[in-house]
Amino acid sequence: MAQAGTVDRILDTAEVLFAQKGFAETSLRAITSKAGVNLAAVNYHFGSKEALIQAVFERFLTPFSAALGAKLDEMEASGTPDTPENVLGIVSRLALGTHPQDPQRAATFFRLSGQAYSQPQGHLRDYLHTHYGAVFKRLQAHLQRAVPDVPPMELFWRVQFSLGAVIFTLSGMQSLQAISRSDFNLDVSAADITRRLLPFLVGGIQAPMPDQLKVES
Amino acid sequence: MAQAGTVDRILDTAEVLFAQKGFAETSLRAITSKAGVNLAAVNYHFGSKEALIQAVFERFLTPFSAALGAKLDEMEASGTPDTPENVLGIVSRLALGTHPQDPQRAATFFRLSGQAYSQPQGHLRDYLHTHYGAVFKRLQAHLQRAVPDVPPMELFWRVQFSLGAVIFTLSGMQSLQAISRSDFNLDVSAADITRRLLPFLVGGIQAPMPDQLKVES
DNA sequence: GTATGTTTGAAACGTATGTTTTGAACACAG
DNA sequence: CTGTGTTCAAAACATACGTTTCAAACATAC
Question: Chain B partners of A202 at a C-beta cutoff of 8 Å?
């Protein structure tokens, strides 16, 4: 990351700063000065700040969703049974392992995702849904086979709950670690949290259905 | 909300706008013009924009945490057994029912909380933790009695996971409803989602422990 | 009615932001 | 060398923001 081109230096720096301080709170001047490039370079290479944000996500998500697709192919080819543990395990190992040389990278990206998802107006949310919805649905289909007793709509929501638990927790890891440290005198890593997450998610996803769900207006 | 005083008109409007567009993306001018008050009124009555944000949270959270404390008193007095369903049920009914005259209000506030928690630098997160941490710990203690086999630290994280699932889902309800509608042709309300959430959370919180948790640096 | 303290209104201030411009530096083909 | 397209650098631009100012309006008590 030292002598990379202007474009990559911008992307690297923007990724970190966006995760640290948020989109609106990170100015182009902060990015360009820390990256050691000229202010105008962002608009020259990306067109606008919003395009920069999208580019940051694309650079991370495209390889990730491709890797996820490949893992699902593998799973189907090898006849691995569809259990919640297997399906969620793939995602978890992938999220933590796509950038083994930089263990911080995954945490940075979860923070980014958290911000993208909690942006109320939801540009990015829609963008993610349209561009990476296919792999997502494939994943959901595997989960459905793993818990056939859970109705599809219920599973849809449970997957959203899981997403929330994951992104929310890992995006706030820094603060949460401080609390955990003061309460338990113990440090935790992203891998540690993920290991704790898995049983929780499995338990939630395959929970028995409530007796009846009434729909109101 | 029609003829309220300046302070309340500001708070009402700010609450809605912050939830809709975020803190940084909502200008004082947008708030004051929509509230029909002068721009300077915010700085006059609250001192600064950040103080306004805190005031919005305080106005909602203080009654809520008081009500939660009362419900816990009630539970202890009546000898209601500490089960995950009972404890989580209290919170859920409270979150949905504190403002029965305005069902939108709860959703608005969840969106607010989502933004507060995902703000990376975490002023608000710390503020919430220090001001309302006591009730929170009390709740966690009840949960601990409900699932004595789960070690305290594990429970701590599971509560965080649950918080993530709740806030994340309800803060993104609007977008998620759109997806759900297109996938299932079905509409859902906040109460509906909450009813789906409960079994998920109960399943996650009382999930069996993984065989062993190694701690890494 | 006058005086006093509080609240509002309109305008201005200083600053930070995203973006645009213009020209120099550079790489490379003819 | 000359010309051409690309990248970079410095400066300026326009705008939006939070905040401050100061006088007018108001309420309340004496």
Answer: 207
